[in-house]
Structure formats: structure tokens, C-alpha cells
Amino acid sequence: MTNKRTQQQAKARHDTAATARSVWLAGLGAASIAQKRGAELVATWIEEGKDLQARAQQLTREVRADAAAQVKGAFAPIRHGLERQAERFGSALQQGVARVLAKLGIPSKADIEELTQRVTALSRQLKAAK
After folding, report:
1. C-alpha of 57 from chain center
2. For the residues 42-57, what does the mean pLDDT come to?
3. Which residue from 1, 18, 30, 48 has the least number of CB within 10 angstroms?
């Protein structure tokens, strides 16, 4: 019985050692494959990263262009309204300044141009009369 038990124990130790050796060799094989294929894998990741970055940049440009168009479209009516108000305000301001200048007796640009034309016409008449 002792002999049989000893044989079983020896076989169990041998099986355990063989299993441990198989696990050890499998680990070494995995490390070797990882080392060999690691560079390829990293290169693949880099290329994939570059591709993803290019797609993300393109998407960003498209989104930015769409947003700019939407903002421009949304503000167009407001801008147009402000431009009309500015024109009205400018016109009202010019009219107000013209009234004040007229009350002060200061001639307007149109008055000066009219007087200049009249003086030129009179000068021609005088030259023609001589």
C-alpha cells in the first residue's frame, strides 16, 4: 500500500510539475508573441489614432461652419433692423443739426453750393459783358 501511495504521490508531483512547467512556457510564449507583435500593434494604434483625429477635425470644421451659418441667419433680421434704425437716427440727427444751423444763420452745404453756382454764373456774365 505504501508503494502504491508513494507512486500516486510521485505521479501527482510529476503532474503538478508538468502543469507548472506548461503554465510557465505558455507565459513565456505569450510574452514572446507580445514582444514580436507589440510593435505592429502600437503602429496600428498610431495609424488608427491619426485617422480618428483627422475625422474629428473634419467633423469639428463642419460643425463650426454649420453653427456660423445658423448664427448668421439668426442675427440677419436683427442686424437689418439695427441698420434701419441707424439710418433713421442718422437722418434725424442731420435734420436736427441743419435746423440748429439754420436758426443760427449758418448756411447749409446746399446753400453754399447754390451760391457758388450763382457767383460762377455772374462771373461769366461779367466777363462776357467786357
Report:
1. 9
2. 90
3. 1
Cα 85 from chain centroid? 32
How many angstroms separate the CA atoms of 61 and 68, rounded?
A: 10
Phi-psi sector, 105: left (phi>0), alpha (psi -120 to 50), beta: left
- Report how far residue 92's alpha carbon sits from residue 109's, in angstroms, rounded to the nearest whole number: 17
Amino acid found at 108: S
- Residue whose C-alpha is closest to residue 33's, from 25, 43, 45, 23: 25
C-alpha span between 41 and 22 (Å, rounded): 26
What single-letter DSSP state applies at residue 1?
A: -
Over residues 62-73, the mean pLDDT reads 88
64 to 71, 72, 79, 98, 100: CA distances (angstroms): 10, 12, 21, 48, 51
Judge whether 118 and 124 are in contact, CB under 8 Å.
no
> Shortest CA distance to 108 belongs to which of 117, 87, 121, 100?
100
Q: What is the pTM of this model?
A: 0.39
